[in-house]
Each structure stands twice: as C-alpha cells, then as structure tokens.
Amino acid sequence: xxxxxxxxxxxxxxxxxxxxxxxxxxxxxxxxxxxxxxxxxxxxxxxxxxxxxxxxxxxxxxxxxxxxxxxxxxxxxxxxxxxxxxxxxxxxxxxxxxxxxxxxxxxxxxxxxxxxxxxxxxxxxxxxxxxxxxxxxxxxxxxxxxxxxxxxxxxxxxxxxxxxxxxxxxxxxxxxxxxxxxxxxxxxxxxxxxxxxxxxxxxxxxxxxxxxxxxxxxxxxxxxxxxxxxxxxxxx
Length: 236
Ligand code: HEM
Fold this sequence. Notes:
The chain folds into two domains: 171 residues, no CATH class; 62 residues. 83% of the residues lie in helices and 0% in strands. It contains nine helices and no strands. The termini are far apart.
C-alpha cells in the first residue's frame, strides 16, 4: 500500500509508455496496409485518452458521494499522472489522425463544417491537456500558487469539448445499439450525475434557503436530457 502511494505516478506513466508501444507493435503485426494501421492506432489512442480523462475527472466526485470507497489517497494522488497520460495518448491520436489519416494542412480546405468544428474542439482540448502536462510537476504547483488550481480546473473544459469532438466525428459512436456508444453515454451520465450531487451540496451550503431536493431533481433531469439529446443527435 505504501509502495503504491509513493510510486503511483511513476507506475501510471510507465504503464502508459509501455501500453502505447505495445499497441504500436501489436498493430504493426495485424495490418499490412499503413493507412489502416494509422487509422486503427489513432482510434485506439483516442479511446485510451478519453478513458484516462474520465478516470481523472471521476475521482473527486466519486469519493465525495461514496467517501468509504477504498484506496482514496492513491486515487487522489494518481489524478495528475492520469492527466499527463491522457495528454500523451491524445497527442499521438491527434498527430496520427491529422497528418497520417487526414493528410495534413493541405487538406483543410476540403473539411466540411462539422469536421472543422470537431477538429477545433479537439485542438483546444489538446492545448488544455498540454498546458496541464507542462505544469504537472511539484515545482510548478509551488511556483503558480492559486493559479495552478485555476488552470487545472480547465480539465472540465477539455472533457466537455472532447465529448462534442467524439460525438461529431468518432466513427465508433454511430450505431444506436452499439455496446461502445451505450457504455460511453452511460459512463458520461454517471459522471454528470455524481457532479450534480456535488454541485447540489455546494449550492445548498452557499444558499441555505434553496430547497436541495428541487435543485437536485432539476439538475438531474437537465443532465439526462442533455446527454440523451447528444446521443440521438449522433446516432440518427
Ligand atoms: C488537433 C486535435 C485532434 C484532431 C485533429 C483529432 C482528429 C480526430 C479524427 C479525424 C477522428 C475520427 C477518427 C475515426 O473515428 O475514424 C477523431 C476521433 C476521436 N477523437 Fe480526436 N482529434 C483531436 C483531438 C482529440 C483529443 C484531445 C481527444 C481526447 C482527449 C480526442 C479523442 C477522440 C476520440 C475518443 C475519438 C473517437 C474514436 C473512435 O471513434 O474510435 N481527439 N479525432
């Protein structure tokens, strides 16, 4: 336990690099066609990046709602490394998709508006992840003081933009009864649900005259409507 707590960040980063290499060499063995190889790898790295952002985002609300869950100190300590790993996979995904699959800057003029918007959202999310990675060392935390927390709250923006990026162009998220799409949407709803409980708690503490149950119900309905509408927007 003490070993895990001390080295969790190194373990996550080493596992990230090993997994990226493993996927690369495994895919090389599977595909003889280079375009197919890059497209598959680009998607695999993208899915891993999204999963890592998801884990880094869910740690705080899940321990808030279920404080008795085990491994809390390890999970809290691992958040920064999860963000850095997400950036590594997202960067590899973006480079492969943009330069190898899409064909680079020369092809931008052929992009339709939904692809253009999706690329832009992906790019902003990538810049946010890069800024967080660049300031992820303890030295930066000390130097930046309160601004570090403010900057690192932008992970919520990155997560939000990636949701739209994926719904706009992710080819693995197009079928109505596809297990991946349903799992992705349910996972997103679960995260939003936990965050709404946290927000509800904060609102009630700040504005004690508000009725907690009413706020909670409204928030939950809004969130469910939001996610379901995104889901139908994509699959129909
Ligand atoms: C400049 C930045 C980016 C570019 C140019 C880009 C490009 C693309 C493209 C072309 C696709 C469609 C691939 C396909 O499904 O066939 C895609 C899908 C996707 N992107 Fe990005 N992306 C960028 C940033 C990001 C970031 C920062 C993330 C997450 C952290 C991300 C996560 C995803 C995911 C999860 C998919 C769906 C993959 C699938 O359907 O299997 N992208 N991206």
